[in-house]
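Can't paste images in this forum, so I'm doing it all in text. The chain is below; anyone willing to post the predicted structure tokens underneath?
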Amino acid sequence: MKTPTTVAGLTRRVVDTVRGIDVLRRAGLAPFPRVDEGLRSLITARRYGPLAGAVRVAAHRDATAVGIVDEQGPLTFRQLDLRSNALARAWAARGVGQGTTVAALCRDHRGLVLTMLAAGKLGAPVLLMNTGFAKPQLTAVAERENVRVLVHDEEFTDLLGDITGVDRYLSWTDSGDDADSGTVPTLDSVIGAADDRTVPPPEKPGGLVLLTSGTTGTPKGAPRPKVSPLDSAQFLDRIPLRVGEATYMAAPLFHATGLSQFILSCALGCTVVLRRKFDPETVLRGVAEHRCTALVLVPTMLQRLVDLPPETRAQYDTSRLRIIFVAGSALSPDLGNRATELFGDVIHNLYGSTEVAVATVATPEDWRRAPGTVGRPPVGCRVALYDDSDRRITEPGVTGRVFVGSGLAFDGYTDGRTKDVLDGLLATGDVGHFDADGLLFIDGRDDEMIVSGGENVYPVEVENILVDHPEVVEAAVLGVDDDDFGQRLKAFVVTTDGASLDAEGVRDHVRANLARYKVPRDVAFLPRLPRNSTGKVLRNELS
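Text version of the structure:
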């Protein structure tokens, strides 16, 4: 999505560029006065794409710097560059090149990273498949996106049995053995047999294709073409990542949250700690062992961290953490406050989507002032609210549809469709409001609002009140049909072990904090809420 070429639009772009350069300077990405290094980095990123370019630049900067650490150990940026050269050359010999779609169904480990790097060096787009998808979704997506090469972990083999006509490679074997598994070669065996000399840059970078969550049907593909390094300023403006530190990546790389922060960490020459599966104590151990300054996760992961027994948390030194980066689904005021109490003023709450990337970020200061906020737009981003008649909303406290302008926004889905656009801004599908200080709050999805007895109700407001109850672990609220009121609210509640809370107690708690028409008529207690791999509640599985 491009910014309109009006005088105001051009002026805004110039101002954003100047501000963006200053942000990159403060983060260490624009190494003044070594302008030559900055130009080399810019040229490399434009030739190979943001990820492969970032790794090449980091390898040139310090050949001994560790790029990633996974269950198999560390790999330097230099090793990542050389091994991905070998994989790219092996694939090129099999006809993989500009425009060949490479699909990856992998957990977070070196195999996925090398796949993205090698494909980027060949100009081949990488389709990042969600490890939580079912077999029919994966098959449909592979067919629609015309996948030619399929890289996957051994554990997902059965899910991919209906995908035919592709070259397959194993990125991770359960035994850890490098030998080929049956007729499917491993990436390690392919890399070991190939030349690792530098690969010439492709005609144009292949980019990455993310998939929407697929909670309402077949996931849509959202391409991420090559990105200007200046767009990194959109994150760094409000998230103080710095060159040469360490990031623990708990969020999955196939999701926009994990991918964006992984690419940015590589660009900063940071060590990124990866683990294939999330375990809260393992996260704390990794943060302490690698002296991580940043932790990237989704809210359900943060919930499991703060729910650990105090004696478990006390075993690990997390004092170097300056940033807990949370995105992917809504962060409730209660959870954000509990995390702040435990880890200090480190919560950075990002609001965005697969389509628009970053929209706003709440800094720890924003959160202290207004728990639950998603903050303000960083440099290069614009956020505006519109009513149902497409009129701009400027008054604080008035809910409207959220539209975003960003240099990282996509230009449309792979099937040709796109989101609604107003004044050059892209719809997120959410509704929200600004407070008197200009901080944004998300009130819910625009298709989740219900009308009960003539009153508009957004379920997320009720959910936030419910999780504030000391005996409630998590809650989801949705609308169900009602003969008298059109719709009524139904709450699905997960309580703490040994809780005495009953349905009337749930209603009393909401009644004491919200208007009468926002009190759920129906309450169901569940052992857990159904969620996808990025923490979003699967509302279609609730009834």
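The first strand starts at residue 66 and ends at 70. The CA atoms of residues 20 and 233 lie 5 Å apart.
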